Amino acid sequence: MLRYLVGSEDLARSRFALSPLFELDSLLRSVVGLPPRRLPVPWLHRITPSYRRLRQDPAFRAVLALHKPGRGATFLAPPPQGLAQTVEDDLDTVRATAVERVREEIAGLEPVADDQARAVLDAPDVVARLADVLEQAWHELLAPDWPQLRAICERDVVHRAGLLGRGGWLAALDGLHPKVRWRDHGIDVLHMADGTVDLRGEGLLLIPSVFVWPRVAAYHDDPWPKAIVYPARGVAALWESPAVAEPGALGALLGRSRAQLLLALDTPASTTHLAHSLGLAVGAVGDHLTVLRRAGLLDRIRSGRSVLYHRTPIGDALAAQSEP
Prior knowledge:
There is one protein chain. By secondary structure, the chain is an alpha/beta fold. The chain folds into three domains: about 1-10 and about 160-235, no CATH class; about 20-145, no CATH class; about 240-320, Winged helix-like DNA-binding domain superfamily/Winged helix DNA-binding domain (Arc Repressor Mutant, subunit A). It has helices at about 10-15, 20-30, 40-55, 60-65, 85-95, 100-105, 115-120, 125-140, 145-175, 235-240, 250-255, 255-265, 270-280, 280-295, 315-320, and strands spanning about 1-5, 15, 65-70, 70, 180, 185-190, 195-200, 205-210, 215-220, 225-230, 270, 300-305, 305-310. Strand 3 (about 65-70) and strand 4 form a beta hairpin.
């Protein structure tokens, strides 16, 4: 069991964050069978051609070689700073990692059987080469889907921020993951390597993720910031197309598209996420949301770089009257 010792100053400094490179890292682990679970077939079909092209590059194979069962190279997916994190921020952190630190992590993950990949890991410019191929992999494998992934994670943060405001950190941590629990002024992460980590007043990052599901991950080694990565609520929105609620009489009152948007906002969502899930144009969704907000049925909140819409009590009451 891994245990984080949490003091009052740690609670004051703990915060939510997003990690684009961690999503890429977890996607790659899934593709190579770590852990042994498959991605949804549509995702595999879409990314397989790009993945096969990338595998021709020894630097990409070097990245894959650093993924081992139960662990990996932290410098490939460094802990983020906050909710506004971009992949450019992550890549800047990778490129700024001291080569001595990189070689130390590589040494702990040997052996690497691929001679060409091994040559990349031994090269003087190993940090730059790995960062460059991570950037390429990001754009080819994940960038088109990042707005949807980010929306899922931001919706989770809005939900947990509400729990935090109403019931404190105990409420926010409740239901984070079956293996995470608050106990005696500390946070336990079950079924991980035994150890106790003193946060030393630096706080803890809580990072929602899509591809970490159904597991939980943790950053606990120095010099990296300490963090827990947990599955975001609503991950099913990625794996399958959700059934669109039929608006019934509500559609006659508001119009079909506006009624569908109101029903879809049982949890906060961004304009992009709503457009993707309902098959509507982003511009049209924005116009409809403006009308619903002016009518007092919706409100909005900023989360990182996104604006998330949610129903007001009046919107909830109206949606509840809709025919099934």
